[in-house]
């Protein structure tokens, strides 16, 4: 969870804590920089976690911390390591869990000395340096080209390739594997941290959880809860935060369905099962898609088409770098208690699938217009609904939006960005008057047809929720896998 500055009490963290706990998540990684609001917000987060039966641990973001600050890192761990909600591990449950984003070269012995307590340090060092800690965390949760961009025909590094590199380098030490559903970011010259690229998501969320069940790593860290700027949030839009410009592609784009999809997989993982089937307790259809075809031309109004004052390897004008690596498809995961027939209609073209008991995944070509989904069994309709968001032939708000809209049947609760903080920079960079800073998704499908209508287990495996960087202010260090740039600022 990215530590943000606009929460005024521990109660502002309660909803995040209870949602995560109900999904089977054990702890939040609290991503911190060196902001003046850090200690106040850490205090609120630790207090809320203790009240709600959750655990938390600090993850030091080395876009802001320096590797020469080992003593300061250790002192910060000491400050919070004795609190009730602190995650501890080890045979005696006495090792304070600590992680990072980047930080290669940090003197871990000096951190331990300054902390003055037993530590379990699982930093996000590169694979070559992974054995320096008690374990290691791999951030790179998306297929890539080995240089922090989308894969190409000549260079495709899978997430599983990354797993293997870390597992081999760790030589038997615990590995914290990443799991993430998506990655898309689209900041233009309206901010100082311009960046514009995507990694291929498609059915990554389903495929990754299936792979995690097969591999069974010691720990899993989900990337992320509230990183709206990079579009891989699975927490609610309503979670309190300041808008750093991401609301242009985040508004009306809930991802709550991804958390729902993960619940039975988390339960299966924690039980040591290779199959999710027995952990599916009710029928659900989760679906996601981009709001426009990737061929849509938005150059005349897109926020990234203006010259930038801070050119970098992460900025590309217009259509995001990596756009060709994603599929123009609607993606469907059906979690079924029994076999059934799933029908999907995208833009008026329908396709029917025979689903088996367990988790099923399919994709159909995107069609402009309404998106409908249904499940039938024994001649009766079990689930049926029309998505709240059509696929458009136009550029929504005039920009290239490669974020995903995620829906679910039976329908969940409405989820919207909160005013004013969640819309604070909405119009910055947009063409004048093209969009208004307000949630407009509603609770009823466009056609007027409303959609109809996990157990936490104790084990030696744990699921932690990754921090969010949430603003990308500053270029950050030149980290070969990912330049995680930024902190939320008011």
How would you describe this structure to a colleague?
The chain is α/β, with parallel strands linked by helices. The chain has eight helices and 19 strands. The strands form four sheets. Strands 1, 2, 3, 4, 5, 6, 7, 10 and 19 form a nine-stranded mixed sheet that branches. β1 (27-32), α2 and β2 (55-61) form a beta-alpha-beta unit. α3 packs across α4 and α6 (204-215) packs parallel to α8 (256-270). The relative contact order is 0.17. Residues 445-459 and 467-490 have low confidence and may be disordered.
Structure at a glance:
By secondary structure, the chain is of the alpha/beta class. The protein is built from 8 helices and 19 strands.
Keywords:
single chain; 490 residues; alpha/beta; 9-stranded mixed β-sheet; 4-stranded antiparallel β-sheet; 19 strands
Ordered list of secondary-structure elements with their pairings:
Layout (H helix, E strand, L loop, with lengths): L10 H12 L4 E6 L5 H14 L3 E7 L8 H12 L6 E2 L5 E7 L6 H8 L3 E4 L13 E2 L21 H12 L4 E5 L4 E4 L7 E4 L5 H12 L3 E4 L24 H4 L5 H15 L13 E6 L39 E8 L3 E7 L2 E7 L2 E8 L5 E7 L2 E7 L18 E5 L52 E4 L25
Parallel strand pairs: 1-2, 1-19, 2-4, 4-5, 6-7, 7-10, 10-19
Antiparallel strand pairs: 3-4, 8-9, 11-12, 11-18, 12-15, 13-14, 13-16, 16-17
């Amino acid at each position: 969870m990215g530590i943000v500055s606009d929460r005024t009490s521990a109660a502002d963290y309660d909803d995040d804590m209870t949602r995560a706990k109900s999904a089977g998540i054990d702890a939040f990684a609290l991503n911190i920089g060196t902001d003046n609001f850090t200690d106040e917000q850490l205090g609120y987060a630790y207090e809320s976690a203790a009240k709600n039966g959750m655990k938390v641990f600090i993850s030091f973001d080395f876009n802001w911390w320096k590797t020469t600050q080992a003593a300061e890192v250790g002192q910060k761990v000491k400050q919070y390591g004795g609190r009730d909600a602190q995650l501890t591990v080890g045979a005696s449950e006495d090792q304070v869990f600590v992680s990072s984003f980047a930080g290669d070269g940090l003197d871990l012995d000096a951190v331990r000395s300054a902390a003055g307590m037993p530590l379990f340090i699982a930093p996000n060092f590169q694979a070559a340096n992974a054995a320096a800690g008690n374990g290691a965390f791999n951030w790179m949760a998306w297929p890539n080209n080995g240089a922090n961009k989308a894969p190409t025909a000549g260079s495709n590094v899978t997430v599983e390739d990354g797993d293997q590199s870390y597992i081999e380098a760790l030589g038997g030490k615990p590995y914290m594997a990443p799991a993430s559903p998506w990655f898309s970011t689209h900041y233009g010259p309206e901010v100082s941290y311009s960046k514009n690229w995507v990694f291929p998501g498609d059915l990554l969320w389903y495929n990754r959880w299936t792979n995690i069940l097969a591999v069974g790593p010691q720990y899993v860290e989900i990337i992320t809860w509230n990183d709206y700027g990079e579009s891989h949030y699975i927490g609610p839009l309503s979670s309190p935060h300041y808008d750093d410009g991401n609301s242009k592609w985040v508004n009306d784009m809930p991802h709550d369905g991804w958390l729902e999809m993960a619940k039975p997989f988390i339960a299966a993982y924690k039980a040591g099962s290779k199959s999710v089937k027995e952990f599916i307790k009710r029928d659900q259809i989760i679906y996601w898609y981009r709001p426009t075809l990737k061929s849509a031309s938005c150059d005349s109004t897109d926020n990234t088409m203006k010259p930038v004052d801070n050119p970098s390897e992460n900025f590309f004008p217009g259509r995001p770098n990596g756009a060709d690596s994603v599929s123009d498809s609607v993606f469907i995961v059906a979690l079924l208690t029994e076999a059934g027939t799933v029908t999907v209609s995208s833009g008026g073209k329908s396709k029917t699938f025979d689903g088996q008991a367990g988790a099923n995944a399919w994709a159909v070509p995107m069609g402009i217009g309404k998106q409908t989904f249904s499940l039938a069994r024994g001649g009766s309709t079990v689930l049926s609904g029309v998505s709240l968001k059509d696929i458009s032939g136009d550029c929504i708000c005039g920009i290239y939006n490669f974020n995903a809209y995620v829906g679910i049947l039976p329908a969940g609760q409405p989820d919207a960005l909160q005013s004013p903080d969640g819309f604070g920079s909405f119009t910055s960079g947009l063409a004048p008057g093209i969009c208004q800073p307000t949630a407009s998704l509603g609770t009823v499908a466009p056609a007027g047809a409303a959609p109809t209508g996990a157990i936490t287990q104790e084990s030696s495996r744990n699921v932690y929720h990754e921090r969010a960087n949430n603003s990308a202010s500053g270029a950050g260090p030149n980290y070969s896998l990912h330049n995680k740039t930024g902190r939320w600022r008011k």
